[in-house]
């Protein structure tokens, strides 16, 4: 199953036979209307009734699926109750950051007001703005003290995220300000669709080993595999829920592979007019354009 936020409304995608490739051939049904009001149009509300929604979606008719406008796709999780982001979760990225491989997950948050959709323009903050493509997990059923072996059962689905980072703010003074530096408006784009783990498997993808990357103005800058994460999704769910009670609709950014701008020599950052494409196997891609910023 794949869902999107289309024009602010929860929409179930029609998996076209030629497969969900490009965002330009998106088709779907409006969940609020197709369910006769049983499920709310609000894309954030669905996670509170995830099991029930999955059952409904499995039998929902897609006969009335209509073309969707990719430019009207919004944030899948417009108001996540909690947001977790894992730092230094790929060995090659820890190395390029001049840090050791963590023995405990490095956890910070991105504030909910920074969330945006998978398309469109993002205004640059005044500092040096960097990219970090990431696999993002959205929590379905919450819980406390979830064992790693059951971690995936609590994940509603996966999508792509960009953990956009103003390095100037992040490293203004020690210790680093991860949460603030990564939470300017629009600095947490997520999308295009939430894809369930069973759907990924059915399409031949291993949810524990997805390829992901991003391109700046058409040039590949990051490319890695989620199988190389220090802490995989199940382990992250276990480590987080050992402390914090996870809630339906929580978002987890799982870390970025090597290739960030700050790790280049000389360092490279996003500028006015730059285009960023972020992709992951089985999950599609996001496209953003940056505007403004320091002159
Ligand atoms: Zn990150």
Structure report:
15% of the residues lie in helices and 31% in strands. Strands 1, 2, 3, 4, 5, 6, 7, 10, 11, 13 and 16 form an eleven-stranded mixed sheet that branches. Strands 8-18-17-14-15 form a five-stranded mixed sheet, with no helix packed on it. Strands 9-12 form a two-stranded antiparallel ribbon. With 295 residues, the chain is an alpha+beta fold. It has one domain: Fumarylacetoacetase-like, C-terminal domain (Fumarylacetoacetate hydrolase, domain 2, Alpha-Beta Complex). The protein has helices at 31-34, 50-59, 91-96, 167-170, 178-181, 197-202, 233-241; strands at 2-6, 9-13, 27-30, 66-67, 83-87, 106-108, 115-116, 119-124, 129-130, 133-139, 155-162, 165-166, 188-195, 211-216, 219-225, 251-253, 275-280, 284-292. The chain binds zinc ion (ZN). Zinc ion binds next to loops.
Q: What secondary-structure arrangement, pairings included, does this model have?
A:
Elements: E1 2-6, E2 9-13, E3 27-30, H1 31-34, H2 50-59, E4 66-67, E5 83-87, H3 91-96, E6 106-108, E7 115-116, E8 119-124, E9 129-130, E10 133-139, E11 155-162, E12 165-166, H4 167-170, H5 178-181, E13 188-195, H6 197-202, E14 211-216, E15 219-225, H7 233-241, E16 251-253, E17 275-280, E18 284-292
The protein binds zinc ion.
The site of zinc ion has 7 residues, from loops.
């Amino acid at each position: 199953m794949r869902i999107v936020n289309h024009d602010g409304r929860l929409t179930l995608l029609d998996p076209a036979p030629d497969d969900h490739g490009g965002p330009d051939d998106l088709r779907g049904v409006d969940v609020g209307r197709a369910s006769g009001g049983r499920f709310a149009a609000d894309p954030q509300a669905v996670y509170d009734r995830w099991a029930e929604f999955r059952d409904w979606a499995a039998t929902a008719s897609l006969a009335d699926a209509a073309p969707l406008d990719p430019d009207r796709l919004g944030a899948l999780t417009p108001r996540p109750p909690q947001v977790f982001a894992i730092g230094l979760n790929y060995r090659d990225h820890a190395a390029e950051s001049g840090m050791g491989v963590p023995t405990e997950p490095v956890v910070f948050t991105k504030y909910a007001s920074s969330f945006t959709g998978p398309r469109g323009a993002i205004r640059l903050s005044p500092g040096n703005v960097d990219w970090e493509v990431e696999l993002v997990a959205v929590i379905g059923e919450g819980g406390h003290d979830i064992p790693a072996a059951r971690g995936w059962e609590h994940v509603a689905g996966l999508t792509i995220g960009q953990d956009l980072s103003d390095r100037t703010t992040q490293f203004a003074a020690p210790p680093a300000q991860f949460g603030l530096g990564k939470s300017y408006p629009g600095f947490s784009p997520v999308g295009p669709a939430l894809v369930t783990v069973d759907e990924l498997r059915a399409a031949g993808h291993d949810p524990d080993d997805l390829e992901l990357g991003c391109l700046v103005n058409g040039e590949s800058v990051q490319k890695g595999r989620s199988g190389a994460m220090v802490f995989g999704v199940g382990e992250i769910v276990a480590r987080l829920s050992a402390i914090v009670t996870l809630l339906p609709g929580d978002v987890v950014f799982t870390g970025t592979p090597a290739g960030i701008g700050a790790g280049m020599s000389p360092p490279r950052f996003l500028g006015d007019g730059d285009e960023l494409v972020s992709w992951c196997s089985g999950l599609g891609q996001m496209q953003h354009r940056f505007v403004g910023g320091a002159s």
